[in-house]
């Protein structure tokens, strides 16, 4: 993501570490796509693009600076070759909010940990992300990053069943450099306080999460951990990690994680981000006449931040359902915030939408798209709206 004044922000990529490859240089023991300077294994492409959303795909190997792929001797089940590989999906919506779904293929998935310095086999670490800022030539980190660099927000109280309706927050100063984030180490929302109008945020699932500052590797003349600083090239600074001790999914050879990203210029970002987080983590339920809740049928996909309408058959059809917002979901109020809805195999273009009986015209606040799949074309709609009450949706075939 890039702010309006040119500051680049990234949560970087997955990485792992194998001390068996330490040959007098630390780079050979570290495996991440940033080491693949020739782009031998990295591929990125736009999988879908419409008015409703853009889906970006990325595939890469976890490689070191010698272009070796991590753990080639351990079967990973990767569809791309031996060793550790990664798939990523970015589902980007018109408000700029997007999910990032990461999937690491590794034969070490059952014993993998999110962080740690005990990395001797059979111990292994797979990290998913770190907060990174890149500045333009002629700029220093302190030109772009506030000394009080992070606002951390917790969604859970002392016990996981104690949901915090409004969240609790704190601001972290990096002068002096923090050793940890104390009682906010389990915050699941990070707002990066850049010196810009729009500030990037990262939201993780609130269970089994741990946030911590980036451990300094050298002196800190620019306050933050910084690499490659020069007047000509600019800089790269890493601020911290969000670690996940619970995975979105884990199998014998895969590790998956999901995050929600975006930017905000809200005067009170905590007040904006807490309802957004809950709308994604505990989304209001989709209720539909004739459909009984079924553990085998997913009507909401956290990885896409989208509802999947259950139905039989294919092609355009009249469909009615409700998104049921609970005013007191274990202490937190559920909200419907800028929802996306997918109807699989709609196939033919054209749709009409009513909300609570009122026709909604297509435009900047009601976007429609179609995505080609192996079985047909899925209908995707996105709405700019917010409601704390149940909303009834009516979809029907419309003019092309």
In short:
With 400 residues, the chain is mostly beta strands. It has helices at residues 141-144, 269-281, and strands at residues 8-10, 15-17, 30-31, 43-49, 54-61, 85-92, 98-105, 112-113, 124-127, 130-135, 145-156, 163-172, 189-194, 199-204, 209-213, 225-230, 234-244, 249-250, 254-264, 285-287, 300-301, 306-308, 319-324, 336-337, 340-343, 351-355, 358-360, 366-372, 377-383, 386-387, 391-397.
Task: Spell out the key features of this protein.
mainly beta, Immunoglobulin-like, 5-stranded antiparallel β-sheet, 2 helices, 31 strands
Strand composition percent? 35-45%
Sheet having the most strands: 10 strands, antiparallel
What global shape is seen? Answer: globular
- Mind telling me the C-alpha Rg? 22 Å
Task: Provide the helix percentage.
Answer: under 10%
User: Helical segment tally?
Assistant: 2
Q: Which class best fits the helix and strand makeup?
A: mainly beta
Average pLDDT metric? 92
| Total strand segments | 31
Which spans of ≥5 residues are poorly predicted at pLDDT below 50? Answer: none
Measure the end-to-end span: 34 Å
Number of domains: 2
Q: Can you put this structure into words, describing what you see?
A:
The protein has 400 residues and is mainly β. The protein has two domains: 8-276, no CATH class; 282-397, Immunoglobulin-like, CATH 2.60.40. It is 4% helix and 43% strand. It contains two helices and 31 strands. The strands form six sheets. Strands 4, 5, 6, 7, 11, 12, 13, 14, 18 and 19 form a ten-stranded antiparallel β-sheet that branches. A hairpin with a 3-residue loop joins strand 18 and strand 19 (254-264). The protein is globular and about 65 Å long. The two termini are 34 Å apart. The mean pLDDT is 92.
């Amino acid at each position: 993501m890039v702010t309006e004044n040119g500051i680049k922000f990234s949560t970087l990529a997955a990485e792992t570490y194998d001390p068996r490859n330490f040959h007098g240089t630390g780079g050979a023991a570290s495996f991440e796509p940033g080491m693949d300077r020739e782009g031998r294994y990295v591929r990125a492409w736009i999988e879908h693009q419409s008015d409703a959303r853009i889906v970006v795909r990325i595939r890469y190997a976890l490689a070191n600076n010698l272009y070796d792929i991590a753990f080639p001797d351990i079967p990973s089940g990767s569809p791309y070759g031996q060793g550790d590989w990664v798939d990523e999906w970015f589902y980007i919506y018109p408000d700029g909010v997007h999910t990032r779904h990461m999937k690491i293929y590794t034969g070490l998935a059952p014993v993998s940990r999110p962080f740690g310095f005990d990395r001797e086999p059979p111990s292994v670490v797979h990290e998913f992300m770190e907060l990174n800022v890149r500045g333009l030539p002629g700029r220093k980190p302190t030109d772009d990053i506030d000394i009080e660099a992070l606002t951390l927000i917790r969604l859970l109280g002392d016990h996981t069943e104690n949901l915090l309706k409004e969240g609790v927050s704190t601001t972290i100063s990096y002068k002096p450099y923090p050793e940890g984030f104390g009682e906010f180490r389990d915050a699941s929302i990070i707002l990066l306080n850049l010196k810009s109008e729009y500030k990037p945020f990262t939201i993780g699932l609130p269970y089994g999460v741990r946030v911590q500052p980036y451990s300094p590797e050298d002196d800190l003349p620019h306050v933050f951990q910084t690499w490659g600083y020069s007047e000509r090239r600019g800089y790269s600074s890493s601020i911290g990690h969000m670690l996940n001790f619970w995975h979105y999914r884990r199998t014998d050879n895969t590790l998956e994680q999901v995050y929600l990203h975006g930017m905000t210029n809200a005067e009170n970002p905590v007040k904006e981000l807490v309802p957004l987080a809950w709308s994604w983590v505990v989304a209001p339920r989709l209720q539909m006449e004739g459909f009984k809740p079924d553990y085998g049928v997913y009507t909401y996909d956290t990885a896409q931040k989208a509802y999947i309408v259950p139905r039989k058959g294919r092609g355009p059809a009249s469909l009615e359902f409700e998104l049921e917002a609970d005013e007191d979901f274990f202490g937190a109020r559920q909200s419907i915030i800028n929802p996306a809805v997918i109807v699989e195999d709609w196939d033919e273009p054209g749709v009409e939408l009513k909300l609570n009986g009122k026709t909604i015209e297509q435009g900047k606040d009601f976007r429609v798209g179609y995505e080609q799949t192996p079985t047909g074309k899925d209908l995707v709609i996105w709405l700019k709206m917010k409601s704390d009450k149940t909303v009834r949706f009516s979809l029907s075939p419309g003019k092309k």
